[in-house]
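Entry for hypoxanthine complex. Fields follow.
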Amino acid sequence: MTVHIGAKPGQIAPTVLMPGDPYRARWAAETFLDGAELVNEVRGMLGFTGTWRGNPVTIQGSGMGMPSLSIYANELIRDYDAQTLIRIGSCGGMQDHVAIRDVIIAMTASTITSPSSGIFREFSFAPCADYGLLQAAVKAAEGKGSKTHVGGIYSSDVFYSERPDLDEQMMRHGILGVEMEAAELYTLAARHGRRALAVLTVSDHLLTGELLPSEDRERTFGDMVEIALEAAFS
Ligand code: HPA
């Protein structure tokens, strides 16, 4: 047990999928894992462990934003020895060629600040994905016929941005989408020598104002779970 995770030692698998929403963690575990058991419900941040094609997997909610994800990822890594951590979530599209429902596999995640900023001081660290996981996820996504983009994303501290000038600079520099967790996940994985990746679906678009219809959310989320699982065990 840790401060925020009630699982007993051995109840967390070396491979952990991390959706932001704890109810999504439950849906994914019930839909894709065999023998899924609830291993955490502290603060309602549900976590489940089961197997996928015989491989042990935990699906643990991260909550929204880097401070929340940082708590769970730190405890998963330091106390439960998680080796592979894959965020599955949504993002806002930031380029014309990126459409609603497309999959973005984040090669890098830029930030203004993250919970790790304090340790870097003047150093501008570039959080990046594990290359092997990234390659395997691209293959899995293309195999499913998902329109897939690989490149840089932005991990923001705010959903409701008040900085159109900053969005403009990011778009100018090819940032594909914005979400709120990946940069801290990549930084923690780098610090502790673990593998990390973020697989994202475009759920809204900053340029067009479009929103993913709610009936599509479950299917696109299911695709991400399968991409993440295939990448983790390829
Ligand atoms: N901004 C920040 N985070 C997000 C967005 C967004 O537009 N969409 C999904 N996660």
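NOTE: The two ends are 30 Å apart (CA to CA).
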